[in-house]
Amino acid sequence: MSDMSENTGDLKLVGNSSKLKRRVSMHIYILPNMLTTANLFFGFYSIIHSIKGDFVYASYAVVAAAVFDLFDGRLARMTRSTSRFGAEYDSLSDLISFGMAPGILLYLWALQPFGRVGWVASFLYVACGALRLARFNVQVGVIEKQYFQGLPIPMAAGIVASCVLAFRELGLEAYNSVYILAMTFLLSMVMVSTFRYRSFKDMDLKHRMPFSYLVLGILLFVVVAYNPEVMLFALFLIYAVLGAVFGLFRLGRKPAKLKSAPEYLEQSQGDLLEEEDDE
After folding, report:
1. In angstroms, rounded to a whole number, what is the distance separating the alpha carbons of residues 277 and 38?
2. Which residues contact 45 (CB under 8 A, 6 or more apart)?
3. Which of 41, 148, 242, 278 would be a feasible disulfide site paired with 197, CB 3.0-4.6 Å?
């Protein structure tokens, strides 16, 4: 009798052990997550160069991180390799590349002379970026796809990176600049605001469109090509300011009725990555 009970106990241990192994072991899609890792790498690379004082390299690293962030979600959807793991990993990488990296860049490049106010402003940028990502994650399927709620964090990071490049191109001094300090506070606020920013997801470039759209695209390309560093900063800043102005004065189309929020645990990487794909 004792032998039988011992055997039963052993079988239970083996069964529990196999269940534990199934829980602990997991399989992930390699290719899209490698692109997300590249995004994370360039964010870390930007922080290293900011610490070394190579602010131009740090800015280009943020741009490179944005490029990889643009493609990881699209690749995941094209190859049908979306996953919750990829969505979580992407958000964490974005916090480093578009939150921490620009925050440290802002502080060491321009805000250090302001002392406590300077590092508090940099921290506020990082904290608001984290809140922006968290809010987006839990609002997937709730907000309209044609609009972002608040300025997307990759766009805020793009404004910071292009600002560094524009100041260098124009020969302006950023160290101890009140304008950069004000821009840092403003970027922080618009990220967590409820201002609606157009995502342009409703524009399907695969179908026929008016000829004027092509002319407008060529003109935009020529304007940016004339002086990329300055013009990109101007375009990004105009996008951020217009969204804030429209939000303050309640201009534009009224938001559509929102459906009840789905559980976050049911969301896929493809949904969570859609926001960054269009920036």
Report:
1. 15
2. 61
3. 148
Phi, psi of 193 (to 5 degrees): -75, 175
Closest CA to 245 of 197, 201, 278: 197
pLDDT tens for each residue of 108-150: 999 999 999 999 999 999 999 999 999 988 876 666 667 788 8
Q: Which among 240, 235, 142, 113 has a CA at the least distance from the CA of 189?
A: 240
Residues 6+ apart with CB under 8 A from 74: 273, 277
Q: For residues 84 and 26, what is the distance between their CA atoms, to the nearest angstrom?
A: 12
Phi first, then psi: give them for residue 198, nearest 5 degrees: -65, 130
| CA-CA-CA-CA torsion sign (199, 73, 151, 234) | negative
Backbone angles phi, psi at 43, to 5 degrees: -65, -45
d(CA 210, CA 229): 30
φ/ψ bin of 29: left (φ > 0), alpha (ψ from -120 to 50), beta (otherwise): beta
**Cβ(43)–Cβ(96) below 8 Å:** yes
147 DSSP assignment:
E
For 219-251, the pLDDT digits (tens) are 988 988 888 889 999 999 998 888 888 877 776
Torsion sign across C-alpha atoms 77, 42, 129, 189: negative
For 215, residues 6+ apart whose C-beta sits below 8 A from its C-beta are: none
Q: What is the DSSP letter of 249?
A: T
**And the tokens for 180?**
């950069």
Strand partners, 244: none
Residue 151 in contact with residue 214, Cβ under 8 Å? no
Residue with token string 């217009």: 242
Tokens 């399927």, located at residue = 141
